[in-house]
Amino acid sequence: GQAPGAGHHQRQALAAALRVQEPAARCAALLLMADELEGGGQEQALSAALAAAQEVDSVAARALLLGKLGALRNGLASRKVMLGALMALHQVTDWRIHATVLQGLAPHLDGDLMVMALAAVRKIDENLPRMRALAALLTCPDGAARRSAWLLVADDLCYRFRTRPRAELYACLALPGLLAPPYVDAEMAASIAQVVIQLEAEWQWPV
Length: 207
Fold this sequence. Notes:
- The longest helix has 17 residues, at 39-55.
- It is built from 11 helices and no strands.
- It has helices at residues 6-18, 23-34, 39-55, 59-72, 77-89, 95-105, 111-121, 127-137, 143-159, 166-173, 186-202.
- By secondary structure, the protein is an all-alpha fold.
- Helix 2 packs parallel to helix 4 (59-72).
């Protein structure tokens, strides 16, 4: 008889992934194979991955999985997924997860979703992870949404470092993406440098 084709093997792999009992593992398996599937098979895998992600008890794991889904999906269907990821992120206290999730979602954010993303960033108390999350959001291609993120960066530079060691400020400024083209041009970089010079001149830095 004729050997089974690639479509047959993909259907078998999808069926095996759907039988995984643990929701996080099932979601991860479906996400891994989603890019290799076509048409209805891919839609089935992504829908099942979304359902599995929503069953995950750990809010941090749920945020990461929904963030990966939001980065994969296109069109109106992704908005609900990204909204779920951002809502979960509001409950996460491991700040490293914020940058990971926001890095994946940033290319797809609009103004309303950026408002939610920035609200999640404002919950981050530590300056370095907070700036790392903002650097991730600065990759958003929506100019108005990206400007909202930049305004928070500028506000943080002016007010969050007054009582912090200067090394912390420079560590934040050195973060990849924070001062990187194409979203930061020479004029913007010069403005930031001027703010830093002003900080040096006017503020009493702690030892």
